Amino acid sequence: PIEARYKFPIHEAAAVCGFEADIDGQRKVKGIVKEAKKAAKEYTEAIEKGHGAYLLESESADVFQCSIGNITSGQTIVVKITYVSELKHDSETEKIRFVLPTYIAPRYGSSTSTSSSADDGKILEPDAVLYSEEANFYLDLTVT
């Protein structure tokens, strides 16, 4: 089994409100909010016991990391992350604008890889990700 880690950008004013993993289309795991150290400990313990493990954590205000442990050969895992963010008004076009960040800019002092030699090549951190695009938008508007 391997562990996969995926970092993704999010608008710094957005709030994550849902995390779900679909395993082979047959089982769903829903995330719950826990204190960071406790969640990391439970994740590590699940990996050590050979169970599937799922962790979503905030690396900074605008970068999250999703870790999935004990992925077996041929297994398909689809991750769904739900977040809320205020839509901005574009004064030039007089329209509402939604921005979907797709790139994490290099940070001063950051390394190119977070894997260590102790990982024994069992952690997968992709350099490039092929995106499939699906956009579902819902608008709940209250005018007072």
Explain what the structure shows.
With 144 residues, the chain is mainly beta. The chain has one domain (2-124). Helix content is 9%, strand content 38%. The chain has one helix and nine strands. It has one helix spanning 36-48, and strands spanning 2-9, 15-23, 27-30, 53-60, 63-71, 77-84, 88-90, 95-97, 123-124. The protein is elongated, with a radius of gyration of 18 Å. It holds the Pfam family VIT. This is VIT domain-containing protein. Residues 1-85 form the VIT domain.
Task: List strands and helices in order, with pairings.
Layout: E1 2-9, E2 15-23, E3 27-30, H1 36-48, E4 53-60, E5 63-71, E6 77-84, E7 88-90, E8 95-97, E9 123-124
Parallel strand pairs: 1-9
Antiparallel strand pairs: 1-5, 2-3, 2-6, 4-5, 7-8
Key attributes of the depicted protein:
144 residues, mainly beta, four-stranded mixed sheet, 1 helix, elongated
Briefly say what this structure is.
InterPro entries: VIT (IPR013694). By secondary structure, the protein is mainly beta.
Gyration radius over CA: 18 Å
- Low-confidence parts: 112-118
Portion in beta strands: 35-45%
Rounded mean pLDDT score:
83
Largest sheet composition: 4 strands, mixed
- Helix proportion: under 10%
Distance between the termini: 54 Å
Number of helices: 1
Please trace the helix and strand order, writing H or E for each element: EEEHEEEEEE
**Structural domain tally:** 1
Which shape, going by the Cα principal axes?
elongated
Structural class: mainly beta
Total strands: the figure is 9
Widest sheet: strand order? 4-5-1-9
